[in-house]
Amino acid sequence: GEAERSAPLLVQGLAERTERDLAALPVPGLLTPGQTAPPLPVAGIDDLDGLPFPAWDLFPLENYWSLGFGHGPLTGRRYLPLLTSRGCPYPCAFCVIPATNGRRWRARSGASVALEMASMGDRFGVAEFHLEDVNPTVNDRRTREMCQAILERDLRVTWKLAAGTKVESIRDGETIALMARAGCRYISISPETGAPELLKTMGKPFKRDHAAGIVAAMNRHGIRSQACFVLGFPGEGDAQRRATWNMVEDLTRMGVDEIALFIITPVPGSAIFAGYSGYGSLSDLNFTPSWREDYRLLVDFRLALYKRFLWWKLRYHPWKLLRQCGNFLIGRFETKMEMVPYKALVWWWVEHQPGGRCHPPPLDMQP
């Protein structure tokens, strides 16, 4: 469950070493003696505005910042994660969120989000925020309210939807324009596949024409875009992969700045989990599911599509590719595909240091 209120109760009960049974503690999800499975999930916290801001002062932030990368593309030297909503109303079959949130979406107010940005700026000098919401734009009115609150405070911030959002929940180009004015500079969307029949099986709503219009609007307003796809979903064959190939080309032509291709792995709690076998342990259910019989086929397809994407990008938007090369050289990342090779360079550097200490390569990371 969500632990902000229940975890302190549990810790307090354990610290006091009272005689009362732990089962009496109002702690959802707590295993008690004799139980072999946790209780059913309970409703999440509705009053998100009533929760305190994260205690980032207890974290070694400088250690994270010194690495020079984050979940979202890192433009400056300092950033912080930001959570503005919880849950998601969509039933995607490969995702655990439907089981853990009951398809409920809850959001903080725009004023609360803007206040946190201002507070983190005052305390830590942070002006860049990577939103880690599952789906932050479900409610268009809330999205606009958040943007207006940032503008009313005259916050000079940059924020990026690093964990992505459902493009169908972004209403129109006017919302994109307002997000850009308020400092949004990166949005990740998830078409998942180009095959309509697979989208239906996934329970994934996706409107191709709407997505194309939103991507075009992002291009007009200087917001970088990422499109994420999954490969190897049950029922996928050559025809479905070809449809994904064609969709990637269409979105690239419309101006998508980067793509991410993931091979499906059955996460416990997802609707597709029970239909898979062949893995040795839960640890094998990761981003490299080499236990799959079709793993090599999917890897080869993925590499081929990445290569073709770069060719399409050079063909349709050559200046964007040149800009991304420049961003990598100066260490100011507008997309994840600029930051990924930097990450590889950092880890290579770490492995070749005495004792494995981290001394990142000297790329300029001015705030």
Describe this structure in words.
This protein has a 6-stranded parallel beta sheet. A two-stranded antiparallel sheet has the order 2-3. Helix 5 links the parallel strand 4 and strand 5. It is of the alpha/beta class and 367 residues long. The protein is 41% helix and 10% strand. The protein is built from 12 helices and 8 strands.
Q: Gap between N and C termini, in Å?
A: 37 Å
Order of strands side by side in the largest beta sheet? Answer: 1-4-5-6-7-8
Mean pLDDT: 89
Number of strands: 8
Helicity range: 40-55%
Summarize the structure.
The two termini are 37 Å apart. The relative contact order is 0.10.
Task: Give the topology, please.
Elements lengths: L2 H14 L44 H7 L12 E3 L2 E2 L10 H5 L4 E2 L2 H15 L3 E4 L8 H13 L5 E4 L11 H9 L2 E9 L3 H7 L5 H13 L3 E8 L6 H17 L3 E6 L31 H22 L1 H13 L5 H16 L16
Parallel strand pairs: 1-4, 4-5, 5-6, 6-7, 7-8
Antiparallel strand pairs: 2-3
